[in-house]
Write a structure and sequence with these properties.
Oligomer: single chain
Order of helices and strands: HEEEEEEEEEEEH
Helix content: 10-25%
CATH architecture: Beta Barrel
CATH superfamily: predicted glycosyltransferase like domains
Mean pLDDT: 81
Number of strands: 11
CATH class: Mainly Beta
CATH topology: Thrombin, subunit H
Strand order of the largest sheet: 2-5-6-11-10-9
Length: 159
Amino acid sequence: MPDFLRKLLRKLNESLTKKLSSKRFQARFPIKVTIYPEIVTGKLKSARRPSLSISGETVDLSKTGVGFVVSAIRLKEHYLVGENRTLYSEIDLPNGKVRMELLGVRYEQIEIHDSESKYLIGARIISIDPMSKEIYEEFLRLRGRIKPKKQNFSLEAKS
């Protein structure tokens, strides 16, 4: 009897975990991450410094978060993960650019080659503007089966 109860509780726990976590799917798209670090000197907070950016590639996307790979975990002395640092990101999806604010929650150093290391960062979406949200949710709903938007320009020569 206890064995049956244990199996039942395990199955219940697994099904609840699946329902509570967002489905992720693998997706490789260019991402640009920008931070705006503040300079703090004693009790004074100065205006924001110019932005610092890094480019990378997404690994997985979900409704609540983004996984991406970059070549460094720091921009100058500012870590991308921790210190409640907001990451302003821009992802180039086939159906348009998506701008969102992320919060890095974890990272892991991964080796690509013997001489090259990269960092896998897991980030939670904390804010997304309405237009970007529409593009992002359409992309997730169709699971990447979206054709790139057509550009409105012609290749005709003008004389």
